[in-house]
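Page 42, continued from yesterday. The earlier attempt failed because a stray header line got pasted into the input along with the sequence. Redoing it now with the clean sequence only.
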Amino acid sequence: MENNSLELINYRNENYNKSLNNKLLKLASNIPDSNGSRYFEKIDKNIGIVTDEFMYNYYKDCVNLIYISSLKYKEIIENNKIDMFLFVTCWRGMEDNDWRGKRKQENILSKIIRLCRSKNIPTLFQSIEDPSNYNVFINIAKGFDYIFTTDENKIEDYKNHCNNENVYLSMFGVNPLFHNPIGIKNNKKLKEVLFAGSWMRKYPHRCKDMKKIFDGVLSSNRELNIIDRNFNENAYFYPKEYIPYTSPSINHEDLQKIHKLYDWIINVNSIKYSPTMCAMRCYEAQALGNAIISNYSIAVNNNNPNIFIVHDSKEVNSILNSFNNEEIYKHQVYGIRNVMSDKCVFNRIEDMMKKVYPDFYINLNKKVLVVTKKITPTIKESFNRQIYQYKYLVEEDKAKKIYNEYDFIAFFKEDYFYKEYYLQDMINGFKYTDSDYITKDSYYYNNQLISGIEHNYVNKMKDKYKTLFDIKTFNLDFLLSLNNSIFLNNGYSIDPFGLNVKNIISNNENSSLLQKIYDKLRNEFLVNDKSTSNNEEDNKLLKENKKEYKFSVIVPIYNNGRYLLNKCFNSLKRSSMFNDMEIILVDDASSDKDTIGIMKSLNRENENIKLYRFNDISSGSASRPRNKGIEISTTDYITFLDPDNEAVNDGYAKLYKEIVNSDYDMVLGNMLKAGNKESVMKNRRSKVIDNSRQYEVNNNFPVNSIQAIMIKKNLILEKNLKMVNGAIGQDTLFFIELMLNAKKIKIIEDIIHIYYAAVKTSITNNNSISFFEKSLLLEKEMAIKLERYGVKEEYIYGKLEFFYKNWYMSKLKNADKSMVMEITKIMLEVFNVYNHTHIQDNEIKDFIECAKSKKYDEIKKIYF
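This time it went through. Structure tokens are written below.
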């Protein structure tokens, strides 16, 4: 059926969801607006702007915007003091068909640029349509003084095509006065899943991904609510099967509030393989308090790992139905924190302003004074636990002298357990409200939720020890005198998380005693790390748990806590055997405070998690933490999962069911690799292999991800198998050793985990000299062990050249060009450890000859 056929139009008119919009608008009517921002101040700059409604709403509250129409541009510029002119790529402006059409844009914008130059007004071009529409707007960009793009990959193209070095990255963010969580708890959440967007046939991959997600939602006992921005445009009609879920467009401002009625929304990226460009909705929906399901995008995965990425329809059901209401709410709060902490439009505009005005400054790092009666070890621990860095701890009698040097004041109490993000979340409340204080009207008492007002304005402050005050509004003596609840206007209450009121006892001696008892018990369930011990032997697990788990998942960690929580842990949480798995987090001396906080929080809140922390110097690879994880595991079966990857399809449960009570030493599954494309690696078919050593040799040493296997631990212990400390690619050798030592294995067809290959922080994506140095460590050990197993020759003639060319030599084109000599020497040494002289591949032969002859200029020209 043709999209624009009369039959489909009639079907749409009869079957679309006619009651949805009125229902949503009525529910959203009791959601308040933001009353401003106490944290941010509007920047005193007048920006003449050409853009559409969406980007106008993004910028409108951070600077003075003067909209420039295509008809009256000269009059507007002449009659207003304009500090800079900004064109944001758009298909139409804000007034009817204003600015519609490429030719009109090019013609009038060129005149505006000339007029601005005559008045010394800087001109800024911002593309939010890269890379897909780069060619549409490139001629316009050539006339501007400064160019900003959402796609990092297009920066060099702009510099070359525009002959302009003033080209910069400017990623999306949120306007906290427009995109915020105010009122998200005013209504009972709708069970449907919301998508606000169009069916765009010009992007077939987008439509394919939409169908994948839509079908997954509908098969999960949920319904869709689709608000179609192009409802009356025949070219954007949805397929017939989705029309009953569609409804007409709703104005932009109301749509923000409507998002707050839902727990879950869908995001679809038209651009999937840019490291920085993704749909703006990714940011906006987090600020609005939504949990987000999205198609794959490198930018989404790199910058917003808390967004659930769907590769298969079947994953949608486990995402929607594996978390309880509290867990969903915590996830939503994480998203709010993620964007409000450093992705507000004020952060973005500051960066743009500094490119034009190098001396430009606004205070985006407000200071918090934390006051307590007495600085005890417990208070100091609570203070040091805080992720928010612009803070100072002081006792009450010393606070007065420095009171006016700070922006906000908090009070800490001995009996209260302040979690890692307590101050950060309270501070963020001032960003999207112009309140005098931010409080927690709802909170946890001995881990039990005490109900109260959440994410709404309040006029009663119940407890100063769970409140953050604006110093300019309150006198210190007044705040010190507060011991009970008090009616105070212009407050705002956020979520209940981040604070646990452990005990309220008036008798200080009893309170102190109870605190000691509590701390003793708590320490018995935490891991002692070397931050409290200088002896590596003392760095041992103290967390005792009598439960017998069925298998262990070992997770090596180094400064990747955001991924640990949102990718690794949340994927394990969706497993049917989550409560039966022993999750062992082994930290390789992380220095990132966010990572440390997330690890400790996960360990504190999940009885099946064990945390072991090295607190010396990072070893530089996953080997040391993985080896330690094997050592301290208590189950008979082992698997591994990296923090930036995901376990899917209940794969570990499937592997376990195959291996338990069997004579298999290992059970293997498949892996989906998501990088610059999405593909199943190896795609092995189901089979049982009775002689795994022979299979490995006969098939030229195939390698399986160790994150997609379940291993009998005895195989590792009896053969004393360890990964090479400090090496990269250590899992390759480890798997080969497993295959050479195992007797019988089974392969299943299921995809067990997703490997996100384009993660920026991944060590394998780092092509510096350290990558090659660490690879040399592996290859030296590989050559020794293969010879010990008696298969070195088979490896040389079956695998070496293929691997050397397609792995190491392929890395050279992105390697550090200033280190050609050093890297080349290492590359030569890597090859020489195998004493392979009869080289078959001509490209390898040429490279080795150049390396031996020290022809570094030629090597740089050809290979780098």
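Notes: The CA atoms of residues 577 and 653 lie 6 Å apart.
Reminder to self: strip header lines before submitting.
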